[in-house]
Amino acid sequence: MLLFWAGIIYALIGPDFQEVGSMPLILGIVVLVMHGLQMLMLKQVSKFLHPTAKDYLAVLVFGSFAMNHHRARLKAISEENKQKNAENRQKKQKP
């Protein structure tokens, strides 16, 4: 991803901007929007994961590569809650 962003920046400020055309700009905007949506997804589960500003920045730059860690954490929390709920149901059923 860093190579992609470096290529986008070079295409925008490099000496051959006219030859490159608008394709890098369009691709950069598409990727930026997708990463922004992933940041919103992370914000949705922030009460469970407590992400830092560094986490948001990593998702903005690296996208789904950075989200893998957060997905794994969320899955572990979800499994933990399922086990607790099952245990609570069993306790309530027993007199």
Automatic annotation (TrEMBL):
Keywords, alphabetical: Membrane, Transmembrane, Transmembrane helix
Keyword Membrane in record: yes
Residues annotated as transmembrane: 20-42
Region (Disordered): 76-95
Keyword Membrane: yes
Protein name: DUF1145 domain-containing protein
Source organism: Oceanisphaera marina
UniProt lineage: Bacteria, Pseudomonadati, Pseudomonadota, Gammaproteobacteria, Aeromonadales
